[in-house]
Amino acid sequence: MDQRLSFITLAVAELAASRRFYLDSLGWEPCVDVPGEVLMFQVADKVVLSLWDEEAFAAEVGARPARGAVPPVTLAHNCATRDGVDRVLEQARNAGADPVVAAQEREWGGYSGYFADPDGFRWEVAFNPGDVGQLVLP
Hints:
By secondary structure, the chain is of the alpha/beta class. It is built from four helices and eight strands. It has helices at residues 15-25, 54-61, 82-94, 131-135, and strands spanning 7-12, 32-34, 38-44, 47-53, 74-79, 98-105, 111-116, 122-127.
């Protein structure tokens, strides 16, 4: 198996709420849009983020997602500057995101904060001046 990731799929409780958040408020453009079933966004070269209605998810995967706790995964959006982090976190707050953790200097040398989307998925918004942080910038 090649060392790569093609899709990240998140089961969402209310696809319409995800649509309002990602399309209407954040301004994202889907590459696939099947109303009531799935939204897909190309988020990097050859990487797609899929927001899948949890009923369709359960039908294919064979289990319903656990609800009621913070999902044990984070998604990250890296910025080239600390100011970029602040701007993205403000945009997310204006879009209705839960501002989970304010941006702050981190012991690993960067600057980051977190917000939660309508299903509670945690997004880290980070400035990482290290090699890995620079690797993921466009």
